[in-house]
Design brief:
By secondary structure, this protein is α/β, with parallel strands linked by helices. The chain folds into 2 domains: 11-22 and 92-238, HAD superfamily/HAD-like (Rossmann fold, 3-Layer(aba) Sandwich), CATH 3.40.50; 24-90, Putative phosphatase, domain 2 (DNA polymerase, domain 1), CATH 1.10.150. Helices cover 49% and strands 11% of the residues. The protein has helices at 24-37, 44-51, 56-67, 73-90, 97-103, 116-125, 150-159, 173-181, 200-206, 218-238; strands spanning 11-14, 107-112, 136-138, 166-170, 185-189, 211-213. It has a 6-stranded parallel β-sheet, with helices on both faces. Strand 5 (185-189), helix 9 and strand 6 form a beta-alpha-beta unit. Helix 1 packs antiparallel against helix 4. The protein is globular and about 55 Å long.
Length: 239
Amino acid sequence: MAVVTQTDGPLVIFDCDGVLVDSEPVSVRVLVDALARRGITMEETEAYRRFLGRSLATVTTAMREEFGIEADAAFLDDMRHDLYLRFHSELQPVSGIAETLDSLPFRRCVASSSQPERIRLSLSLTGLIDKFEPHIFSASMVANGKPAPDLFLHAARQMGVAPQDCVVIEDSPAGIEAAHRAGMTVFAFTGASHAFTPGYRGQVAALAPDAQFDVMADLLHLVSKHFAGRDNAFSANLD
């Protein structure tokens, strides 16, 4: 794959679930119920710890390697049906995200572990799709999902931006690790519903994101300050 050497302005890369849409509690309940139907008992707190921010492929691999159960097409179809049904009745945007996006003066895209159809459904149901389309990237587009850096690097290449000129907005430990490994700045958003899950904030803090914030409106200041500081440092080096 080609390496980006030129940039077209800084880029803000948003995760979707837990950053743009408050979907994680719904997703985890659907996953736990689906596992239970296959005889796997797992508490929601354990599901959050193991699978938050990871792709469906990670879930199916765990089912096969740890529990000896194959996630066949029927299993996946049933889980998607339940999830999408609940999304239509329950899914909400993260508080303040629409206003924040409208005021954000930088290019943006989505890079999510979810399948493309799920990302677009989530953004459509919450009125956010027009704020990102067509710049929507899924883990299905790369060989390795988060915590590998592949997805974020793919998004940066497609947008024509070097990794050092990207800021990633993430809520999951897997996503924070992926951003670090991609050589990108990462801000951890810990203001969605699942932020109160036991142990969650400790997991996030242990990964040392470049900033951590709970209110989406604070993102404007954080991103603007970061890019201003980067530009000032660049100017100083030229002097």
